[in-house]
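Ticket #4471: structure output looks truncated?

Reporter: J.K.
Steps to reproduce: submitted the chain below (289 residues) through the standard prediction queue, then opened the result file.
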Amino acid sequence: MGMQIGPFRGSQAIRSGALSRYELSRNYVRVFRDTYVCDGTIVDARTMAIAASICVGDGAVIAGVSAAAVHGAKWIDPSTPPSVLATGRSHQLPGLRIHHDAFDTDDVMIAQGFAVSTPVRTGFDIGRWVPSPLSVVFLDSLLAATCVDGEAIRAYALQRPGTRGIRRLFGALDVVDCGAESPQETRTRLLLVEAGLPKPETQIEIRDSSNRFVARIDMGWRRWRVGVEYEGVHHWFDERQRTRDIERFEYLDRAEWQIVRVNSEQMRLRPHEVVARVRAKLRAAGAPV
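Returned output as attached by the reporter:
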């Protein structure tokens, strides 16, 4: 009997003779009702999305953050219950979310052999179903992975006025940015914008007076030469990274850029101080903040 690859229905594998009940119980892990993966499989958000589709069965469309994972978006926790759109009166199943929102055939595409909501429809659903700031984190990643434009999602939404959650979606679309390279960068940007500071540009390439490349920073304002850098743990525990950082910030100083460095502890415990530091740099540079 052969090894089963990827999520599959256990009952079908037994009926077809591909597996015995003993092999199923010994070598495979149950993900959802009658849905299994091989023991040792890395169960990421994409795998969970496909497993959910198999579990729900005919007519299921992988949607929301699960569709984003299939489209290549990052930062999606596999412990997040996967989402599917389903027609008819499918009842809820433990461990996943079945949505019965109306959708058209144009909202669905085939990806990796499964029905998945298109990037535009995926963004429409994430913005309605997921509260901010997490919705913006997922939308930033979806836009970066698919190159879909936030305005295309907005245009799609404007054709569906009155849809549940649409105001929440518009609020998220107002602050999305495909330049974010981590959830922490998204959260830092949102903190600054929600505090009333101008929306920063992301992934700014900085050059010196001779047009030589100096650095690329997470976000900032070219007009006032003020930038903000989020520093993850690798900046503190990797000695070579620390050396690069020292030299990099010297180069940025010579290019007459003022950089505010931020870490996770400051964001968690003292976000008001982060805002105050950035505001002070902008004000000193002449920004009307």
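Triage note (M.O.): checked the attachment and the full token line is present. The mean pLDDT is 92.
Status: closed, working as intended.
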